[in-house]
């Protein structure tokens, strides 16, 4: 009986340590635009059909890639309903990646949402789903909202994850897509400021498909003034060939870096930049037109 008692205590201690990653040198975060993991109109055997899911071949590739990356925290763009996120969650579990805790966020887009999956505890949720801005006489919603939740990476180490997917570059007749994106970027910056003004020591990681290149005003506004208390550090990642593009637009045969990870000053010294990268299998396009961003977050400051 005594021996059993001590074995049980040892197991509980080990399990608790593993839950918060106390025995790990770092946590793996992955940001990934899944390319329409939604039900939508698709071509099936030469016929346009409504309400069709992402093709199985594409889903299988996404699951295979994520099972190789093994993220502790996964932030995704272009997920559909909660049922779609749970579908991905269950497929990942079968593939050996169990991420039971989740957050979703929607905005004005009725089809595409943001999602976050993790095996770590989610301490709080503050996703923004009702934000609007004005262009002329028209009030417009932020298309996908801003996902916001705090995850405990280890005991006493909370980290706030802010996910965004700004207006795409696809033109629409009603408004200017660049101006829409700039307004969404302004609201995203305002949300970040509201967090860091309350607590400048917040460990904050902002990620997502921001649909603009680094030199565009929207990216500069989100990052904020370099060196300022609320400024965010843009994490420059590269692939195995030292290339930095994250998205391939087939119709224009164009490669661009439009997916980002940015961090608050409180995370200085915690990021393992040398081990962070753009995941680049040769067949990445089978899963998505975006490539996953992988960031290693140390649990102790260097």
- So how many helices? 5
CATH architecture: 4-Layer Sandwich
N-C termini distance: 44 Å
How are the strands of the largest sheet arranged? 5-6-4-1-18-17
Instruction: Tell the overall outline.
Output: globular
Number of domains: 1
Radius of gyration of CA atoms, rounded to a whole number: 20 Å
CATH top level assignment: Alpha Beta
CATH superfamily: Endonuclease/exonuclease/phosphatase
Task: Tell me the strand percentage band.
Answer: 25-35%
Helix content: 10-25%
Mean pLDDT: 92
The computed structural class is alpha+beta
- Element-level helix/strand string: HEEEHEHEEEEEEEHEHEEEEEE
Number of strands: 18
- Which spans of ≥5 residues are poorly predicted at pLDDT below 50? 1-22
Task: Look up the CATH topology.
Answer: Deoxyribonuclease I, Chain A
Main beta-sheet annotation: 6 strands, mixed
